[in-house]
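4.2 Preliminary Data

To establish feasibility before requesting continued support, the project team ran the inverse folding procedure on a target of 118 residues. The structure was first converted into the token representation described in Section 3, and no sequence information of any kind was made available to the design step. The complete token record follows.
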């Protein structure tokens, strides 16, 4: 699969669940795309969800990971419910995904997810 990052197209390989198998976008490359109108083509669903979250579109972000049964998807799902203020729902997803990305602040957790999923 080819992905476009800041106007540069490169090859990356992801399965349908967003699990990476090849070259991934670096965190700083991902952050550089946040000023655009659309996420880079070919992003795995958990990363696309983080992109939409950074744009302030919680519902769109949640829709991408709501039924995603991967550790990465569930980690982003947990973060989104924590951000929403539903601690009980976030805790459910943290139990399923593990809490290796959980941080004291939401901003730090978003950064940990971006760094850890890239």
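Position-by-position output of the design step:
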């Amino acid at each position: 699969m080819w992905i476009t990052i800041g106007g540069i197209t490169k090859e990356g390989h992801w399965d349908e669940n967003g699990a990476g198998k090849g070259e991934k976008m670096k965190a700083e490359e991902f952050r550089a795309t946040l000023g655009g109108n659309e996420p880079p083509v070919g992003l795995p669903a958990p990363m696309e969800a983080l992109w939409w979250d950074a744009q302030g579109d919680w519902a769109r972000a949640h829709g991408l990971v709501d039924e995603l049964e991967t550790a990465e998807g569930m980690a982003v799902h947990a973060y989104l419910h924590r951000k929403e203020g539903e601690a009980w729902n976030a805790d459910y997803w943290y139990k399923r995904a593990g809490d290796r990305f959980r941080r004291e602040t939401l901003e730090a957790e978003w950064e940990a997810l971006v760094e850890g999923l890239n």
